[in-house]
Give the backbone structure.
Amino acid sequence: MKTTLAATALITALSAPAFAFDITAMTEDERAMFRAEVRSYLLDNPEVIMEAVAALEAKQAAAQADAEKNMVAANAKMLFDDGYSWVGGNPDGDITVIEFSDYRCGYCRKAMKEVEELVESDGNIRFILKEFPILGEASLVSSRFAIATLNVAGPEAYKAAHDALMAMNSEMTEPVLRRLAETLELDADAILAEMDSDKVTYAIEENRKLAQIFQINGTPTFIMGDELVRGYVPLNDMRMIVEDIRDNS
């Protein structure tokens, strides 16, 4: 690798204390020569630019990760103990995984079985579902039905309704929802009446507030431990993330 006098000076200047090198003390001729030598060095060694870009991106990613961890800590109550979201897995698990999900999201449907496999095979994960309907009226109606089911019939009924809604492609009309409730042997009248309750609306609005805080605008989005994970993640990758969280906790 070619190293010029100016490049050596640049490296020395960048690694030394700030007061050790003052480019403003140069004459105009010295500054022009310095700039020319630096340009020549970078043209001869363009990989230096890529190394600098990679270092900057790594620094920015680390800063973003730290900021997200601070946001998780600042909003821990709303995230991990909101009092209205369905909680599955191991209630005493050493790691909590949260999923923001939409019933009309294809990647949420794809992720569902893999998340279940992660939680069941690990045995030490507490799993929370956040209803986050963003894909239209059918998504909103589905979430209202699911939350109403949780309020009226409890967590087991919610999970059954959640799984069924994830598999449905029909319009979410009252007859369809009534038939679903009856198929699950639930009180259809009570659930349909609960769908428009303040309690159901509150749950959806609170999840939307959280999404705004974390700039979540797509599903699925996960919070795994204190890490924000955006988008669909294959099972093996989720396992690696969980293992890494445990190793660093």
User: Anything to note?
Assistant: The mean pLDDT is 90. The longest strand covers residues 95-101.
